[in-house]
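Late entry, evening session. Most of the bench is empty. Finally got around to the prediction I had been postponing all week. Sequence below, unchanged from the version circulated by S.P.
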Amino acid sequence: MELYPTHNDLPQATREQIIELLNARLADAIDLYTQTKQAHWNVKGPAFIALHELFDQVAEAVEDYADLLAERAVQLGGVALGTARVAAEKSSLYEYPLSITTGRESASASR
């Protein structure tokens, strides 16, 4: 992995390992963000408004963490791999079932 110059004094091999881990978690965070938005957009039922708002709050928090992960990878001299295509390919999360609409299904889908 070719790194960009940085003032960070960690050894290159250490930075490479950390950047790889950060990008793996970035893929998970992007995937989790989109899965949470999927739940937010499609939830139905008696607890709709509470769950709709909760899913949106979770998505916002996950987006903030994704930003921190990406920025740290770049600070270490790496490249943040944050496109939807990379996230879809690299995420370690289970696929969120697109047919889920109830709050109970949404809660049980998170493994």
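Two things to note before I forget:
DSSP finds four helices and no strands in the chain.
The chain has a mean pLDDT of 94.
Will write this up properly tomorrow.
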